[in-house]
Amino acid sequence: MDKNKIYLYQLLYSALIQIREDAYQKKNKKVFWISNLLHNLPSQLIQNDADYKKILNQIVEDAEHDKMGEWLRNEIGFIDRRN
C-alpha cells in the first residue's frame, strides 16, 4: 500500500480524534458527535476491499442511534444537490 495514502488516512483519523476530544472538553456537543460519528471512517476507507455501501449504511444507523440522523440527512441532501 502507498505510504502517502496511509499517512493521509492516519492524519485524518488523528485529527478527528483530536477534534472530538477538544469538543468534549469545551462541551460542544454537535462537533463532538460529528467527529465521534466519523472518526473511524478513514480506517474503513483505507481497506482495499472497502464496501462503501455497507460503511455508509453503518454511519446512517449510528447517526440515528446517536441522534445525529437529521444532521446526516441534511449533509447527504446538500451533497446530492451539489452533484
Protein traits:
single chain, 83 residues, 0% strand, globular
List the helices and strands and how they pair.
Elements: H1 3-25, H2 29-38, H3 41-45, H4 52-65, H5 69-82
Helix pairs in contact: 1-2, 4-5
Task: Note down, in words, how this protein is organized.
The structure is a single chain. By secondary structure, this protein is an all-alpha fold. The chain has one domain. 80% of the residues lie in helices and 0% in strands. It has 5 helices and no strands. Helix 1 packs antiparallel against helix 2. The protein is globular and about 35 Å long. The model has no long low-confidence stretch (mean pLDDT 96).
In terms of DSSP E residues, the strand content is under 5%
Backbone structural class: mainly alpha
What is the H/E order? HHHHH
Mean pLDDT across all residues, rounded? 96
Summarize this structure briefly:
This protein has 83 residues and is mainly α.
